[in-house]
From TrEMBL:
InterPro entries assigned to the protein according to its UniProt record, in alphabetical order: Aminotransferase_I/II_large, Class-I_PLP-dep_aminotransf, PyrdxlP-dep_Trfase, PyrdxlP-dep_Trfase_major, PyrdxlP-dep_Trfase_small
Gene Ontology BP annotations: alpha-amino acid metabolic process
Protein name per Swiss-Prot or TrEMBL: Aminotransferase
A Pfam family assignment: Aminotran_1_2
Family stated for the protein in its record: Belongs to the class-I pyridoxal-phosphate-dependent aminotransferase family.
Domain Aminotransferase class I/classII large residues, every copy: 41-384
Organism, as annotated: Secundilactobacillus silagei JCM 19001
Required co-factors: pyridoxal 5'-phosphate
Amino acid sequence: MKYQFANNIPESDEDPVGNILKVAGDPKVISFAGGLPAPELFPVEDLKKVTNEVYDESGRQALQYSIAAGYPELRKQIAKRMNRSGIACDIDNIMITTGSQQSIDLTAKLFVNPGDTVIVEQPTYLCALDVFRSYGAHMVGVPMDDDGMKMDALEKAVQDNPNTKFIYTVPSFQNPTGRTMPADRRQKMIEIADKYNVMILEDDPYGAIRFAGQDVAPVKTFEHDERVIYMSTFSKILAPGLRIGWIVAEKNLVKKFTLMKQTVDVHSDNLTQHIIAKYLEDFNIDDHIAKIRETYRRREGIMMDAIEKYFPKNAKYSHPEGGLFIWVEVPGVDTQTLFNTCIDHDVAFVPGEPFYADKVIPGTFRLNYSNMQDDKIVTGIERLGNAIKETISK
Ligand code: PMP
């Protein structure tokens, strides 16, 4: 059968990142390629306990169909957390999603016509690029420095693209760079969005995982007229397999999101929503997040020390104060060649190329430290350092 796919379905079945993860999945390889949270920190026993309570106390309700906006008790708990982070909202501002990946997809579904411009950080979260591409968006990348998106370049990009629908930003501990936008830049981003009347999509899965420095308020706290759609998730603060995230937006916009969501999956898994709501009621998730921060602080520190020891002196790298990733640039290195050499050395990373909407900066790659035991981080970075030196001298 020759299938007649819709216009924006990619012709190729190539999955370059999937292939990398497959190669990196060999047990003898020390892989810094994935973006997985540390599974040993998942609160398995606590979740087991609350799951049993949900079955005992409200099993029939939790197993029934529910409303697309999400379980009100869970939305209430999320609203409480959001207000504490400075985002003023109540439960009508919140819709539960099947993870932030769905939040990104629903936003594109609501706003992007083929040919509309979506402005993104350069580099950015590659599965967001895949979403925008699938709706036929014209993506424009804005260069970054150590403090995230450069605001003069952002303003120029918005000016040059009058059909811009929104700016997509991961302002805290960005995937893939680990960089964070300081408050003055967040404010400036709002000024630009106000001036040119564009929306902002603030994707914040990592903001709670700060292990150094001072908290920075979400971009949404700087807005004047509810132009920011904020999204976060339980994937990094509880467990990604639960597949529960949320959107915070203006109430009428949440109604539109809800209509869109109904067409996709009716509602997110109701049982899981009950389990998380019960968990938030019975346990202090901030105590749990503190353990995650502590572990990632230690692992990031170990990786950073090893990078300083084993990488060549011309290597540049980000210094994240939270999140899961360090971004490296080794000028003059072809990262695909480096990747192949690394596999010979039993170590892996993700090359930078797929994270760019356009204008790739060569020699860049992402390292993940959250999902690797401390001693293996040192061994892996030593191997990687050797592979870099070998690739440079070839
Ligand atoms: N946005 C960013 C920036 C991410 O890094 C990820 C996951 N790695 C997601 C969204 C998707 O998260 P979720 O598991 O909530 O779908």
